[in-house]
Amino acid sequence: MADILLTTINARFRHTAFGLRCLLANLDELAQRAEILEFDLEKTPAEMAEAILAHQPRIVGLGVYVWNADLSRRLVQVLKSLHPELIIVVGGPEVSHDIAGQIITSLANHVIVGEGELLLRTLCRRLLAGEQAIEKICAAPPPDPDQLLPAYALYSERDIQQRVIYVEASRGCPFKCAFCLSALEQGVRHFALEPFLAAMENLWQRGVRHFKFVDRTFNLKITTAQAILDFFHARLTPDLFLHFEVIPDRFPEPLRASVARFPAGTIQFEIGLQSFSAEVLARIDRPQEMTRAVENLSWLRNHTGVHLHTDLIIGLPGEDMTGFAAGFDRLIGLDPHEIQVGILKRLRGAPIQHQIEPFRMVFDPEPPYELLCNDRIDFMTMRRLRRFARYWDLIGNSGRFAKTRPGLLGEQSPFAQFMALSDWLFATTGQTHRIALPRLYDLVQTGLVQALGCDPGLAAEMIHADRSRSHTGQGPERQARHSGFA
């Protein structure tokens, strides 16, 4: 039983709700009266409601994100239908903007806007004391990191053994990218380094070897980044894995030296290039020195063992399919390990909303709010591009087609080549999901011949080599080992 139940719906079991642990760690004396209960997208609202009500809580705190928005709404509807007196507090980016127009916020008793650690503690104290006339919408100013207690001790042994362990050395982002909610934040706040490293030491002693940093710009403060890398290098083991999101044009020589010391497969950098067009980047308010970014990417690929996960976005204002294709081809030439092709989304509150009318953007009204068309890319073309992104993830990013990759991309335009395969795959199967791996190998082999004009013997030879790698365990080791981090 718990007076306060903190819950959310993770995208999958492997993920942990770091935010809930931060809330619980800062409840002060109320922490003894609170529990965490996590779900994933496989659960139904009725199943989740049953588990929640079994704890007989007085207050339910629910974290709402773009991936769980619909299920969260349905869950709150079920809970309020069964127990109208239950106090429900919702928070998270999905309910921090456009509050008045959402069913979930109309049903909830209270909405916390912003980072809620300190505000939730105050709100729960008032609610449990029986105070009346408490405001419904509670805005939380960004807390000073020095005011917050760390949440790392709340990772259970099960979390450490089976799930992703998230950590943060800073909060906020210095950039104002139009498509990102971080554009609404004011600067970057760093946690004190020594206490942070002490917490990492404790996690290390408990057996954690995979650390996912959720900092938006890990290499913004070079001295801190180096100190963290030095800490982990001193504890280097064959199973160590570190994930960081980094700024591509900020790798001075001292940081390069720190990164280059790590063996292959130890570090993954997530690098959000988004576009190679200076005009498009300026339009979305993303300053980026592209010449330096390209130089750094090339250096990282050729002189380190870092796994490079790069991002491009389809549908940015002013960029048509030809422009995106040019950027994709240029990035292929830099040979990162993964290229995540995303579709522009209109997240609630993000500044991209101000460009909807000028660029005639139409977004899906349901989560995840993906772009359906704009003034440069019509709906049918966007559907083709969305399939391209899905097939690229299945084939290009999976690591299972390493020997086949040259035939898939050709020598002129990798984008045009893979788009031809993508169109053929959909015309042949009508599917973008639930394609078994043996069938996918067969389809790619046939597509190489029929869609790309590859010699049948060469196509068979390449696919046979990739099948053999898979059967002998020499396939996509990194993806299998670290799935869920990207």
Description:
The chain is α/β, with parallel strands linked by helices and 486 residues long. Helix content is 40%, strand content 16%. It has 18 helices and 16 strands. The protein has helices at 18-25, 45-53, 69-82, 103-107, 117-128, 157-162, 193-205, 222-233, 253-260, 278-283, 290-303, 321-334, 379-396, 405-409, 414-429, 437-450, 456-471, 477-482; strands at 4-10, 34-40, 59-63, 87-91, 110-113, 137-139, 165-167, 170-172, 188-190, 210-213, 241-246, 267-274, 307-314, 338-343, 362-363, 371-373. The chain has a 6-stranded parallel beta sheet, with helices on both faces. A 6-stranded parallel beta sheet has the order 7-10-11-12-13-14. Strands 8-9 form a two-stranded antiparallel sheet. Helix 1 links the parallel strand 1 (4-10) and strand 2. Helix 2 (45-53) packs across helix 3 and helix 16 runs antiparallel to helix 17 (456-471).
